[in-house]
TrEMBL record:
Recorded name of the encoding gene: LOC101877189
Keyword Protein transport: yes
Biological role: Component of the exocyst complex involved in the docking of exocytic vesicles with fusion sites on the plasma membrane.
Keywords from the UniProt entry: Acetylation, Cell projection, Cytoplasm, Exocytosis, Golgi apparatus, Protein transport, Transport
Molecular function terms, GO-annotated: SNARE binding
Assigned protein family: Belongs to the SEC6 family.
Compartment list: Cell projection, Growth cone; Cytoplasm, Perinuclear region; Golgi apparatus; Midbody
Protein's UniProt name: Exocyst complex component 3
Protein's organism: Melopsittacus undulatus (Budgerigar)
Assembly and binders: The exocyst complex is composed of EXOC1, EXOC2, EXOC3, EXOC4, EXOC5, EXOC6, EXOC7 and EXOC8. Interacts with EXOC3L1. Interacts with BIRC6/bruce. Interacts with MYRIP. Interacts with SLC6A9.
GO-annotated cellular components: exocyst; Golgi apparatus; growth cone; membrane; midbody; perinuclear region of cytoplasm
Disulfide bond found in the keyword field: no
PANTHER family, per the entry: EXOCYST COMPLEX COMPONENT 3 (PTHR21292:SF13), EXOCYST COMPLEX COMPONENT SEC6-RELATED (PTHR21292)
Amino acid sequence: MEETDREAVATAVQRVAGMLQRPDQLDKVEQYRRREARKKASVEARLKAAIQSQLDGVRTGLSQLHNALNDVKDIQQSLIDVNKDWRQSINTIENLKDVKDAVVQHSQLAAAVENLKNIFSVPEIVRETHDLIERGELLQAHRKLMDLECSRDNLMYEQYRMDSKNTHDMNLIHTYFGDMQKLSEELAKQLWMVVQRSLVTVRRDPTLLVSVVRIIEREEKIDRRMLDRKKQTGFIPPGRPKKWKEKMFNILDRTVSTRIEGTQADTRESDKMWLVRHLEIIRKYVVDDLLVAKTLLDQCFPPNYDIFNKLLDMYHQALSTRMQELAAEDLEANEIVSLLTWVLNTYKSTEMMGNSELSPEVDVNSLDALISQNVVDQLLSKYMSTLTSNIIGWLRKALETDKKDWIKETEPEADQDGYYQTTLPAIVFQMFEQNLQVAAQINEDLKTKVLLLCLQQMNSFLTRYKDEAQLYKEEHLKNRQYPQCYVQYMIAVINNCQTFKESIISLKRKYLKLEMEDTLSSSHTSMDATLDIIAKEGCSSLLDEVFMDLEPHLNELMTKKWLMGCNAVGTICVTVEDYFNDFSKIKKPYKKTMTIEAHRRVVVEYIRAIMLKRISFKNAEERKEGAERMIKEAEQFRFLFKKLAAGSGEDTEGLCDIIEAIAEVIKLTDPSLLYLEVSTLVSKYPDIRDDHIAALLTVRGDASRDMKQTIIETLDQGPSQPNPNYVPIFKEITVPTLTVPKLLK
């Protein structure tokens, strides 16, 4: 207390010191004293009020505690009295057991009396209910059935309360109401028939469907009430819970599954398009049914049934099951494509689940896949395997058909530009196009795989095509009169090569992504090379045909008969021109090559005729006459091939110049200049050999052995400066029988 007083004094001193810091504040001392006095009086008043309030609360609490103590004493006394009375009444309670049994019996009898009317009228109510069910008055029938069930259940419950182990009486009640169970089953059968046809019923008689739903809802409420009573009493009537709501959804589920499975109207044996028809019917049915469910069926069911989404799940599951069943069958290639296209594309497209009328209830992005990716991969693998076999078979069949055309006695068809062709390229690439278009319906990856497969099989096919063209040529050589249109069909084969090239490029441009082109460059190069070989061999075989006809006339060259003025070269030119009238049906890339090759071979054969030494000129006059004839015939060849090569840009001069150069050697009148002329010839055509020079000098007829040897030896020692643009021609020409050593002996 003293410590508190000291702290108070110290605080007061500090406060006064704070007020009297300046001399002028001494004048206000009285004012300060009055203000502090007021504050002190106020604090003391509040303190007194607080203490008084606390004292009042304590007084009230003490009073309540006193009253509580008295109440506790009273209750204690009352409990003592109750306990005393209870002990005295134990014997009395035991004497009331008979009263208790009477009360229970009275309760049962009261229930029996209450249901007495229904009990005696059960047979009649059963008949009425049966009639109502047959007439389709399901709500009224269910009302009567509920009354019967209520009577039975109440009686059985009272019996259960009285003696739960008395099964005899329970069975007696159950037997008496036995027909009621049959009525329940009959009514349920009618309900399930309506549920099965709900999508039809909702359009024709929605009231009937609503009645069915109301009956199911009633039964659901009774089920819940009976289950609650079972928890309390342990009793539940027979046949409960009926779970008609659950059964209704099961019926709907089976109905949906049956509807999906039942859409297959055809088999593969009766209709090749059975799967396409089956899938299209499914699509139409599903869309129609879901639209009906959304617009009409949803209004006939309570919101908590969520009937549309339930049906959507059922259809999705039924479709998934059906698609898996179809995928497990032994499908053909086109059927696999139809199935995958439907599953991967059609199902979520605007034609089906993506239909604008089904949104927003149906979100295609939330729908699961109908079949797993593993099944999809298996189907694609099977499709590629089957397609490979099919393409091989189709290509083989197409080639066999084309080969049959080759032996026809009528010319092949011509395209719009007049070039001969067969139907083979069109058939092959139409087949490729169809398969690629089909694959593109599924996805880009499959389209690329099919394109790679087509080009791969095309590569193998072209090898067989080349072999067949070679066999065609060999068969013709056995009998040149057969086939009658050999030349025309060989031209068609050559033209097909160009068509194949163009079609391959077109196919790649249309179906192959740019980034994939590098992966096919080697394959494309290989196909181009094979096609060029086929075309080259075809052109060569046609030229062989020409030169077989020219052979008798070529044999007349550089003979006495030729020198005397036979028209062998004229006949050769006419024959070549006649053949090239047919060769005009060859497409330009190959026609140009063929013209150049024909020109080269004519010149080679002409030079070969010189080197065969069929004639040896006796004097200068014969040499002059022969040389001039050679120059004239070279000009004929030049004119002919210039005419044949018109517009092709071919250089027709160089080859015929060789004949003229040889003619100049033969025409030379001064033997002393012979070495110079021959050396000029050799410098222009460096592939000319010693035996060629010897044969040429032999044809001149005036060169001695020593002169031949000197010229040849001198030329062998001289430097050779070949023209880089010169294409060797003499290396193809052999000089028969006599060799240079024999000539020099």
